Amino acid sequence: MAAGKLVKPRQKGQAAAKMISEARGEGISPVRSRPEWHTVTTKPKFIRKRGDVGIRKYSRSVLIAGMLLGASIFTPATQADAAAGQYHLNLGQKLTVGKCIVSTKGQRGAVAKLCMGKYANALIYYKGVLKAEFGPNHVTAAQPKAYITLASDHNVKIYKYSGGPLLFNSKTAGKFPATQLWIDSCAALPYWNVALVKPGSFNWPWKGEHCVG
Fold it and tell me: Which of 34, 89, 143, 207 could form an SS bridge with 120, CB 3.0 to 4.6 Å?
């Protein structure tokens, strides 16, 4: 451009564009570009300490123990069969058909047995011989699921089956609220008895003879 020559605004713009075009042709960048910023996101690292694992296991053990304890507290108790070798029934225990409780050895080693018979009668044996029985006495058909128990109301009862009809009730709790039902073989005399017992309180021979001497 000649010195002192006025250039119209449009011509100024064209001249600037021409200069930029020539600069690009020579590999020169007339405009400084902005630096590009890249954001890198990294996941936080959690460092697990050895003690944390132990605390976690301990907490889990405490939780499980609490659940089991709660289950044991709130689960209703069920009747249990008499164990082999028992000489008495505890409150709530039951004696099923074909099972017996056996006395300790009495005179000359004699033993007595209280067994649950198949016709819902309780059978009493002494020296291997049937001596007595008690129960409903009107059952003519076999009752394979019948059982005798010292019930929670302290009466001796015989049921047809678990949760089934009541076949026999001793009605003895009013006078003798026993917590155990014993079968006994007397040591000094050739006697046996079925006793209603409350340890430390009374021992009443409900069936049979009282052991004396």
Answer: 143
